[in-house]
Design a protein that fits this description.
This protein is mainly beta. It has one helix and 27 strands. The strands form seven sheets. The chain has a nine-stranded antiparallel β-sheet, with no helix packed on it. A six-stranded antiparallel β-sheet has the order 16-25-24-21-18-19, with no helix packed on it.
Length: 300
């Protein structure tokens, strides 16, 4: 059974699950900016989860590395893909907890399709108006290990549909995809549906879209609701180069377009095959990346 850890800092409260280190709730002045649980029995649709050793999809679950071919389990049946990594439901164990900070640890064991062992250390820190998550990955294998990292939080800024929210993203590119949602090219978003450099209403735009072009500055995106006067900013360090934006259209009835996933990723989908921004770390080498949110209005 999952254990939940609660962190407090003034009017901020963060709840984290031991299952996959998932983000469960972030309450600020009485409003939960993370979508309520989609399922009370287990985490579904990636909600709040860590995506490791790859975010998003690997085409056919097949990739080659150092001359060998590997087959991963297919868990997106409709598109015949391996999706969102292998760590999402693994247990994370408490290393330390103190008021507004938490450290959890797990280990991704070598297995069929991914013969690499990774130690994963997660640090959660509350601020007076947000939180920050730092992921440390250490290669415990005897050979260099390829991986990508992502997180899958669903955010809300009011009780409206996402159509009424304003979205701003400081980037000018997006990934064009094929019918199975595998990237085929990187395109300019200039003037198009996916150009959110100036804040605009999401409206009826369907988003299951990887945004790129942050130019190494880290991701930066802002959600705003006129009705609630709530603003949420998502930011990261330079380790995260892509932002997957999902408007929830394929979620089950009652959840469609009621929240929006803003997913920091170090690489795009299918990076194990394209090699685009795929991270490779030598034995005992460490990788670290941080992302977080800030709330700048919405106090009641």
């Amino acid at each position: 059974m999952a254990k939940e850890f609660k962190l407090k800092n003034g009017d901020s409260e963060l709840i984290v699950s031991s299952d996959g280190g998932a983000l469960v709730a972030f309450n600020y002045f009485g409003f939960n900016y993370l979508a309520e649980k989609f399922n009370d029995n287990f985490i579904e649709s990636g909600q709040g989860q860590i995506l490791l050793p790859w975010p998003n999809r690997i085409k056919g679950g097949v990739y080659e590395y150092l001359g060998a071919q590997y087959q991963l389990p297919i868990n997106e049946i409709a598109h015949n893909n391996a999706i969102h990594g292998l760590l999402r439901w693994d247990k994370f164990y408490e290393e330390s907890i103190a008021g507004d900070s938490l450290k959890l640890k797990s280990c991704l064991v070598a297995q069929q399709g991914y013969p690499f062992e990774l130690e994963v250390n997660l640090s959660y820190n509350l601020t007076s108006s947000g939180f920050k998550v730092t992921t440390e990955v250490i290669n415990k294998s005897l050979m260099a290990a390829p991986f990508g990292l992502g997180w899958h939080p669903y955010f809300v800024v009011s009780n409206e549909f996402v159509n009424d929210w304003h979205l701003q993203i400081d980037a000018n590119m997006y990934c064009e995809v094929d019918i199975d949602l595998i990237p085929t090219s990187l395109e300019s978003s200039d003037g198009g549906d996916y150009d959110f450099r100036k804040s605009k209403k999401i409206g009826n735009t369907v988003l299951d879209t990887c945004i790129a072009g942050f130019d190494g500055r880290g991701i930066n995106a802002t959600l705003y609701s006129e009705a609630s006067n709530r603003t949420l900013e998502v930011y990261s360090d330079g380790a995260f180069k892509y932002l997957m934006v999902f408007s929830g259209d394929s979620l089950k009835d009652g959840l469609k377009r009621r929240s929006i996933a803003l997913e920091p990723m170090t690489c795009p989908a299918n990076a194990f095959n394209s090699k685009n921004d795929l991270v490779t770390i030598a034995p005992n080498q460490k990788f670290e990346g941080s992302w977080g949110i800030n709330i700048s209005s919405g106090k009641s």
